[in-house]
Design goal:
single chain; Rossmann fold; alpha/beta; 51% helix
Length: 228
């Protein structure tokens, strides 16, 4: 084989290996950085004294971005935001102890979109929900549990979730809610446009919610929220 061809092939192999290894290292670093941020947020939850009778909002980044305590100023119950960016049902199960220690009056759950984006199958997600409900109902039996539907997305949602999968998961959540002592709240229909996509006025990245969307959300759940 021509000497220069060998040199060229060798150089290409080195470049490809560098790119592959660099990408792997970058992904691993991003994963480590996310986990550290996740752990920091959970640690701030534990730094809070127990708040018996609190109203808890549990979910991912869409929940985390909500200013729930500011939107419910009339409530005499503590409002706890337990949303973490990127969270999935499987990881939430590992942090339920922190939530249960408050013995909340109500919990509003909004989970599932990231599970779908990461490729989890709907039966797996429902199994996680079932375990979550079992623990809550056993260890905090006075808590009213509300399962909120997964919100629609637009065509280029950054987490990769698709509306076809979201609708199927929501159907499964409706069935689960009928079988367990909890209440299902439909957010999908009020947030969808005539094409079934997340209304463009509610988002600027095809997934996350802007202020107008949160106002709609509060309008929907307000009748369910304790206001003593």
């Amino acid at each position: 084989m021509n000497r220069w061809l060998l040199i060229s092939l060798s150089a290409n192999i080195v470049v490809i290996a560098t790119v592959v290894l660099g990408g792997w290292a970058s992904a691993r670093y991003a994963g480590d950085r996310y986990q550290k941020a996740y752990d920091r947020r959970v640690s701030t939850f534990w730094a809070t004294e127990p708040q018996p009778g609190a109203i808890v909002f549990l979910g991912n980044s869409i929940t985390q971005s909500g200013n729930w305590n500011e939107w419910l100023p009339e409530s005499r119950s503590a409002i706890l935001n337990r949303g973490i960016s990127g969270d999935v049902t499987r990881k939430v199960l590992k942090r339920l102890d922190e939530l249960i220690r408050h013995q909340p009056a109500q919990i509003f759950i909004s989970l599932g979109t990231n599970d779908l984006g990461k490729g989890y199958e709907i039966p797996e997600i429902i199994e996680d929900f079932e375990e979550m409900l079992t623990r809550l109902q056993t260890e905090s039996p006075q808590t009213q549990i509300f399962i909120q539907s997964v919100l629609p997305v637009r065509k280029h949602a950054p987490n990769g979730a698709k509306n076809e999968e979201i609708l199927a998961l929501n159907t499964a959540l409706v069935k689960l809610s009928k079988a367990r002592p909890c209440t299902y709240i439909d957010l999908y229909v009020p947030f969808a446009d005539e094409k079934g996509l997340l209304k463009s006025s509610y988002t600027n990245d095809d997934l996350h919610i802007r202020g107008e969307g949160y106002r709609k959300w509060m309008e929907i759940i307000q009748p369910y929220v304790l206001a003593e």
